Amino acid sequence: MKQISIFLPILILAAAACSRPSVSTTGSTPEVEARVSRLLSQMTLAEKIGQMNQISVGGSVSDYAEAVRNGQVGSILNEVDPEKINAFQRLAVEESRLGIPLLVGRDVIHGFHTVFPIPLGLASTFDPALVEKGARIAALEATAQGVRWTFSPMLDIARDPRWGRIAEGSGEDTFLDARMGEAMVRGYQGEVLDTTSMAACIKHFVGYGAAEGGRDYNSTFLTERQLRNVYLPPFEAAVKAGAMTLMTSFNDNDGVPSTGNAFVLDEVLRREWGFDGLVVTDWNSMGEMIVHGFGTDRKDVAEKAVKAGVDMDMMTYGFVSHLEELVRSGAVREADVDRAVRNILRVKVLLGLFEHPYVDVEAAKAVQYAPAHLEAARTAAQESAVLLANDGTLPLREGLRILVTGPLADAPHDQLGTWAFDGEKNHTITPLAALRDRFPGQVTYVPGLRYSREHRDRFDDVTAAARRSDVVLAFLGEEAILSGEAHSLADLNLKGSQSDLLAALHSTGKPVVAVVMAGRPLTVERDLPHCNALLYSFHPGTMGGPALADLLSGDVNPSGKTPVTFLRTVGQAPLYYNHNRTGRPYNRETMLDDIGLEAGQTSLGNTSYYLDYGAYPLFPFGYGLSYTEFTYSDIALDKEIYGPEETLDISLTLRNTGSRDGTEVVQVYVRDLVGSVTRPVRELKHFERVPLKAGESRPLRIRIPVRELAFWGLDGTWKVEPGDFQLWVAGDSASGEPVSFKVN
Ligand code: GLC
Fold it and tell me: What is the CATH number of domain 390-550?
């Protein structure tokens, strides 16, 4: 028997090597693989299936002791107390037969204890290096307490702000989303895997953000071309960045729930991309395939999931309940179970969990809220705020009597935003506190509204206070719970009486600055006439107050850019910058009131827009103002015709023509004029933050490989098609003049 056990790992290794791509995307090595094979060869079928089971825990560890001791649990989520995590690990490592440690997971979405801006805010920074730093800090804090797996980054492209989870991703653009996802993967996992590495989990695979009507969990109907050109690239980029895990999504796409979709989970993810990390379902998304009407019962959906490529089951108990029977009956091959367990063990070995399953409880305390962490969160909140309008009221002059009002002025819980499970509101510094510190003796506070949904008829107290002030700062927006999972909205206007409050403040004749903290781009067009300036801050996190005080005072110049399109009205949804041209692109505004009575019908000269709201958004993707001005000039390409393997060499001069230092996010967009399929009117292909002193001008050179212009065409392959292209270098997706070039 011993003899066989020596050769068995080698045979398994050889077999596995045949099916797996040559290079490991998770950074595994032959030594890791051999170790995994040795362990796998010692496991019973029941123990293998136990590794495929993830359970959410809470309360007493003893409630789960038997299951863990019996090897029926491979992972837990929702425990963050280091003492309890150590207790769970002791049960697995010291009391189970094989001593396999648990993977401890948690939604560390935008910070652990030190909460950063929500991901949509982080995307507004257009600063991957900063976002990577924030993810690294989240990993330092979370791993210190024993959390070694985060269910982040969320890479779902979101083109519909009715969808509450737009808050959790990087917005509407594939290129920006991919850069942010890569940065978070690097930050969470670290340059070198060690005990501060937290396995990233790229989610929700795939297309979840295209839920019809923006209603969460709803069906999606994405073609393979849309998947290939818009929704899959950020996941591929994150896999190439080394993401160790992936989570399936709740939605069915074209009738197939992602948790049972072998095309995306096996064909694309494994065979094309070579992903060798682990695939976990979303919470009971396996069980929900019954509700979808895609499976008859838990045994059926367990079979469908494991065959499609799922490795671990979050909270359906489908694998632990039915997989052994399915294997014994021959319905499922044990090889499929081995594949799943190999992926799980690979992640555990790579994370070093076998050597370091425990944490130092005392040492963990010193890591939380470290000054450097708070400073980084403050910088992220500064860079994430987007200045959308300003008549010169900002930055605030010194010596002003300032009225602070609004439901988000002193809302330490809501300021943290959605998915801030481990944020502690007593650590939040609110705008009110920060402004009182920045402008001692100058600040008066009258709430006006206690929370964002509150209704009030009169604002006499606030308007009276406004008349005694020189400037009003109104902090408006959404309570944290009004965005995020399951919180879709059909009306995107400011809730409650917030717009009435703003109008009342405006009626006093005093300058009013609106600062909006929200989880999505709200429709604020009706509020614009009532404010002299509008600073948009997607729930800025723990240090949002100091960051906003830095920006409002002018100590820091705003540099954020919109990662999503801001609609004029919710009826325009979905509306995004990188849309196809259509056969009748919008070219003029015959608005509702321009139409004469009994006007004759004609199909001539009509184009694609709304009679009542036109075709344009309130603010386009990539838009954001500064306290200074930037100009772009001398934009040129090094030649007119490029081969598919060449590189666009773009030169330009960027000038800061204002009186303040500032940072511009330079954006490069490209359009493929004619393709085997219709192509978007613009696509972001490069961005970079360029700090310039007042009056400074700087020559820039930007290089973009022509192969970056490839797309999934009519013949179902990735390639750059020859033809005419246009390129813009500008400060947003609606500005700039095109430069033409050809690809042969
Ligand atoms: C939730 C979310 C997912 C999260 C998981 C665990 O339903 O869809 O994003 O990671 O469950 O909390």
Answer: 3.40.50.1700
